[in-house]
Each structure stands twice: as structure tokens, then as C-alpha cells.
Amino acid sequence: MSEEIVNLTIDGIKVKATKGDTILKVAKSVGINIPTLCFLKEINEVGDCRMCIVEIEGRRGFAASCIQKVEEGMVVHTNTPSVVEARKVILDLILSNHPKDCLTCIRSGNCELQNLAEKFNMRDIEYKGEMQNHPIDDKSPSIVREPNKCILCRRCTAACKNVQEIGAISSTGRGFESCIATTYDESLNDVDCTFCGQCVVSCPTGALHEKEYVEDVWEKLKDEETFVVVQTAPAVRVAIGEEFGMPIGENAKGKMVTALKRIGFDKVFDTNTGADFTIMEEANEFIERLSGNGTLPMITSCSPGWVRFAEKNYGDQLDHLSSCKSPHQMFGAVIKSYFAEKYGIDKNKICTVSIMPCIAKKYEASRPEMEVDGVRDVDYVLTTRELAKMIKQANIDFVELEDSNFDDPMGEASGAGAIFGTTGGVMEAAIRTAVDTLENKSMDKIEYKEVRGEKGIKEACLNVAGKEVKIAVASGLSNARKIMDQIKDKKSPYHFIEIMACPGGCVMGGGQPIKSAKTRATIDVRKRRADSIYSIDEKSTIRKSHENPTIKKIYEEYLEKPGSHKAHKYLHTTYSPKPKYDI
Ligand code: SF4
Ligand code: SF4
Ligand code: SF4
To answer: Is ligand 3 within 6 A of the CB of residue 200?
Structure first.
């Protein structure tokens, strides 16, 4: 059916638009930017805050442009003196009971409310509202809620309920008492929150953020007795540059490594190498299960938000999860065993820091299962945003840095390790190794484009060594639920499934640079970052984990072979059902 076109005028510009589109969208298409606050494309389009109001000739009052559909003959004005005045009143009311702690706030410099206050020249706040006094919730290892900085835009609740289908937070109370909280105002740590952080990257203010460990890491770097090793996840390098004004998705690996060396880390390693270990173990485990030794379908386990979701919601199905630790946990264990022994460093004096695109990794690193012989695999997890803060604190001019390489002897990674950072990447990497192993030769086919792209659930059927292997890839917890319900009902057709908690995978993790609603409405951030990751793989000389010489050497010298007793000791873990929050 062809789309119906309507003619309208916006700020004197004659526009042809598709019937059904909003004024906000159509205005943007002709270069007119209307300010927004509660709007978040495809996640929260409700017209609540009224910041996006416009005037329409022939109508009384204002219309919220994020929900008002265009009509034939409409004449719209987006910036009349009355519109500007009304927006200032709205801002005045929001700011009347806002803490205005911008100097010390985590979001200062990247806060949509602060930006609007600056844009509208808010010098005097006319209304004097009573200040809120909600306690800060910082009990969890991953996420902090500062309800006093909340402006009730509900972008977080939309992300949690509509996108992830968790509903850990919602709007509670009425009038002045209104706030965003969990049921009975429990800590996020104690409810069904998965620590995916999708609410954090949706929040326009400092009301939700990661728990920071930047100061702890500086302390370790200061201590001359501690050997501080850092590793960086695949998705960090294609996003860190954004914090310094570089284009979205640009690969800044070389500058990032130089910055980490300048900050003073003793060794800078690549989590992509850790991902190669994960593939060796996961592919081996899958082949074992396919030959009858274990439960099918097997599901990947490198997304800690997904693992926590599974433990809380599908405690009776945990035998489907691969027993592999995630790449940075595996790598942490290898650093504190193989690397420590080979270089004669006391493992108890090594501090491992992981730079991750994810806030759930902070929780994962703190899990009691993530240690070997009483030694933690990973001591601190920092997000991409926290690393950017350290670089800024060290007064490093990131954009001007020359490139460096990761350190030997564990800096070599395959293209398969690189693609872990995007949805479908873990599956594609595992299949490259599993197929070569089952066919007993190096196959020409390297790319499995069937599992790439933005679709929430992707599936493919492969013919491997004369056997039909059905695979699926799901990203986002609402899609994880669909996959798990199928398994629970014994209707799953798959042999192998990849699940990531964040829609789009780690490139869109809760620890990545936060993009404003305006940027998210106009740029496909996921695609830019994912394309950059695939380009790293394409340019790699080694594209399969089992062909990585570093990996082969460490198995030869230390871990013996995938699935060995020693590999299990350092690289595998267990899961257990976690109680659902009982209302
Ligand atoms: S949330 Fe924004 S406006 Fe509020 S204190 Fe923080 S930076 Fe300032
Ligand atoms: S971290 Fe994820 S699950 Fe927890 S409240 Fe935020 S969106 Fe919901
Ligand atoms: S916590 Fe943030 S996203 Fe949620 S309602 Fe408050 S300001 Fe909006």
C-alpha cells in the first residue's frame, strides 16, 4: 500500500510528509530541531514533559510535537515567543526542586537538562519548590540511583518495561511524592533488576548511573607494590573516541592503548584475546553436547545481565547455559595464573582491571564464583565512560595521541574475538571454530552474515559435516524471554543460541558513551559501532580463534587443551537459581 502524502508548512517551510509521522520527526527532516526531554525515539514517545510544544494555526493552546501527527494543510510554528516562554516555564518548574549540583554531578557536561537550562538562559528560578530528600541507592555493585536528580521523564521505566520487559522500576507516589522507584522502594540490588544499564543510557540526567571505581583504580596505580594489568573489551575501542568528539563508531584502539600506557598501567592487554579463549572452550563444549554429552540447545553465557536474568527467571533451565566464563573473567584468570607464573609475579600482587561497555560486568566480577583458589579473576570493572574520565583526569589530549599496540605476550587476538562486541558475533566466532573442528579442515567460509544485523532474533540452519545445525541469536531481554519460553515449553528447534542482554549487543551496553535523545533520533549508533567492529575483523590476518598463535601457545604451555581439567578450573563456572523478588 502506498503511503499517503500530506502537505504542511513548518516555520514557513513548505513540506511534503508521510501521513502518520509526527511534527517532531517531519520538522527534523527539514533541519528544524525542536527541543525535547521525555522523548526517546521508539522507546518513550508520550508527550508528557511538553518541552516539544509547538503552535498550530487555528488551534487553541500548544501541541506536543512528539505525538502530534502531521495533517494536510497544517501550519506549524515551532519557536514563537509564546512557545519559547512556555518552554521556559516548564524548565523553571522542573528546576524549582532540582538539586542543581552540576559541579559535582556525574552527568555534568552530558546532561540534557543542563543543556536545556543553558540553552534557555535559565539564570533565575522563579518557582521555589520544596527540595526532595530521597536517599541514594548505591547498594548494588553496578548501578546507583539518585532519585533527587530525577525529573520524572520516565525514559528509564520505558526502557526497562517496554524494551527489556523487566519492570524493575516504575513511577510511584503522587504529586510532590512522585518518584521513580522499585516496588516498596527496595534497592535495585534486591529486586529483579539485571544490571543491564539500559535505563542508565536512557536517562537524560544524573539520576541513574554506574557505580564508579575510578578512584580505587588510581589508588592501585599509586601503589608501587601492585602490578596493575588492564584489559579492554571489543566494543570499547569503537566508542571511547566519542567521549573526545571523534565520530560515532570510529575505531580508536591505538589511541586507547597509548592512553592506558600513559596513565601508568603495567600491562595493557586485549579482551579480544580473552574472547578467543572463550571460543575455544565454548566451541569444544558445543561439539561435546552435539555428540550427546550434555543439554541442547546450548546457550552462550558471556552477557552477565542475561545470566542474572536466566538465574532469576529460568532457574530450572540453567543446564542450557554454557559453563564458560565470559572473556574478561577468563582472561583475568589467565593473567593471574599463566602470566603470573611465567613472569614470576606474585598473583596476589596483581590487580586486574577490565574496561567494559557494560555495567553488569561489575556485578559479574563480584560474584563469588569468579575466583580461583581464593584469588579474584577481576578486581575492578570500569565502563567506557569511566575510562574516558581517567584519561581526562590525566590531562591526556586523546585525539592527538599516536597509536600503540597491546602488550605482549597476550596482545594478539583474532577477528573472531573482535566481533564479540556486537549481537551475533559470539555465535559467528564460535561457529568458525566449531565448523573447522567438525569438518576437520580449515573452511573457506568465514563470515556468517545470516546472524548479523539489528533484528532482535535471528536464526539460521547450517550443514556441518553432514549434520543439520540450527542456530539462533537474540539480543535484548524481551527476546531472551521468547527464546527461553520456547525452551521451557520443549518447542525450541535450535542446537545453539547466543543471547545478549542489551539490544544490539555490547556496542550498545549500559557502560558505553551516552548519546542524547537528539543523536539517537538521527543516527543509527548501533550500526556505526557494529560496522566498525566488523571492519576490524575483515582487516585481521587471523580471523579464527583456534588459529591465534598466542592461544595455541598458552594451551600448549599451560591449559593443555579445551575442556581439560585445568581449563575447567580457570575458565569455567557454575550458575544457580536466584530468588525472584516477591511482591
Ligand atoms: S542532573 Fe544535570 S542538571 Fe542536575 S545536577 Fe546533574 S548535571 Fe546538573
Ligand atoms: S538495569 Fe536494566 S533491569 Fe535494571 S532497572 Fe535498569 S533497565 Fe531495568
Ligand atoms: S531516573 Fe532518569 S530516566 Fe528515569 S524518570 Fe528520572 S530522569 Fe527520567
So the answer is: no
